[in-house]
Design goal:
single chain, mainly alpha
Length: 140
């Protein structure tokens, strides 16, 4: 298999957009909003990038603190555990809560936005299980 292991870890199936494609395609205001070159170049708010990368920045800070306190082995061991836990997933058509990753990060006792408003039963991304598995395995 020339695609390698990362292609086996995909959890989503791309959904084609139902719009006209080609030189006469119009801009869809309902889905994409108004066009602006400034919005494409810069974030709409100064805190947007910080909020988008919050977990990454928090992990970097925690790893730096661990390295200063316990040495190089502690953040390396924790990163290895993060990678191992991220690879374990449920079937692509089932919701995965990643409780092991939350436990490693210490977020298992916190109630956040995703815990309340990320109910899998209300998800709009439910597809055909056979097609999603074939796509994940590279058969489709």
């Amino acid at each position: 298999n020339s695609r390698g292991a990362p292609s086996l870890l995909k959890d989503t199936v791309p959904i084609p957009e139902f719009s006209a494609s080609g030189p006469f395609e119009g801009h869809d205001l309902l889905r994409r909003g108004f066009t602006s070159v400034k919005n494409e170049l810069l974030p709409s708010h100064p805190l947007e990038l910080t909020e988008k990368n919050f977990q990454l920045n928090q992990d970097k800070t925690n790893f730096a603190t661990l390295r200063n306190i316990q040495g190089l082995h502690a953040p390396l061991k924790l990163q290895m555990e993060f990678r191992a836990v991220k690879q374990v997933q449920r079937l692509p058509f089932l919701h995965s809560s990643n409780i092991a990753l939350d436990t490693l990060r210490g977020n298992d006792e916190c109630i956040s936005f995703e815990d309340i408003l990320n109910d899998p039963s209300q998800s709009e991304v439910m597809g055909e299980p056979h097609m999603m598995m074939e796509y994940k395995l590279g058969l489709l």
